[in-house]
Amino acid sequence: MVRPDQAACPVSVPEHLVLSVVTGSRAYGLETEDSDVDRRGVFAAPAPLFWRLDKPPTHLEGPLPEQFSWEVERFCVLALEANPTVLECLWSPIVERVTPAGEELLAIRRAFLSRRAHRTFAGYAQAQLRRLDPERPKWKQAMHMIRLMLSGLHLAREGEPLVRVGAHRDRLLALRRGEIPWPEVERWRAELAADLDRPGVCDALPEAPDRRTVEDYLVTVRRASL
After folding, report:
1. Which end of the chain has less Cβ packing within 10 Å, N or C?
2. Which neighbouring-strand residues pair with 185?
3. Where on the tree of life does the source sit, at the highest rank (predicted)?
């Protein structure tokens, strides 16, 4: 749903969307019958709108339920910072809409990667751990904590995040159902944390992202909207 403060916005998500993907449980392969369809996207506001005092929004919600989209510049900034949620959008196996500008964005997705991702994925998982109460764990949240660590470890070793969980699916779903005792969950988490801390684990990733390639892409998108 579009919020009231977005109603007068000159930017329309459907009109300016360059990429729309499904994320969340359905992209991970962890969906149940009750799972929502979480959509994330990238829109490109027309360049002349940036010449005004009131700038285009950095993100918009809707118009579909559970849909959230970033303006392309904001998306690129977050991806360069190795934001796990944003990076996983670039590797989602379910692409619902892609324009030529979206295809170019997917084509340069490795330009966003760097060893910083090792810290951000681990940091997001650690933040989720701090919110978990071992006495009354929220099992879905615990599952996503482990899934995020698996994704970060795969990224460090293979050079891309693990979105579709594949062989980990049954164990992760058992965790979501609360069928794995908390001490075993903690052992699993500790093993993954140790693997993430091993020397050389990030050798598949470059030291820094390719900002030049990303900036050239952004300039091309802006010029195309003049």
Report:
1. C
2. none
3. Bacteria
Confidence at residue 8, expressed as pLDDT on a 0 to 100 scale: 52
Over the stretch 156-200, which tens digit does the pLDDT of each residue have? 999 999 999 999 999 999 999 999 999 999 999 999 999 999 999
End-to-end CA distance of the chain: 29
Nearest CA-CA partner of 20 in 55, 69, 71: 69
Give the DSSP letter string of 159-188. SS---S-GGGHHHHHHHHTT-S-HHHHHHH
In this structure, are residues 86 and 69 in contact, taking their beta carbons and an 8 Å threshold?
A: no
**Domain 4-112+209-224: assigned CATH number:** 3.30.460
- What span, in angstroms and rounded, lies between the C-alpha atoms of 194 and 208? 23
Do residues 63 and 44 touch, judged by C-beta distance below 8 A? no
Place of tokens 């003049």: 226
Burial class (CB in 10 A: 0-12, 13-18, 19+), 74: middle
Residues near 22 by Cβ (< 8 Å), separated by ≥ 6? 37, 38, 39, 92, 94, 96
Cα-based torsion angle of the residue sequence 99, 219, 59, 81 in order, rounded to the nearest 10 degrees: 110
Task: Yes or no: say if 93 and 106 are a contact pair by the CB < 8 Å rule.
Answer: no
Digit-coded pLDDT (tens) for 105-119: 999 999 999 999 988
Strands, sheet with 95-98, edge to edge from the N-terminal-most edge strand:
59-61, 67-71, 38-43, 17-23, 95-98
190 backbone dihedrals φ, ψ, rounded to 5°: -65, -40
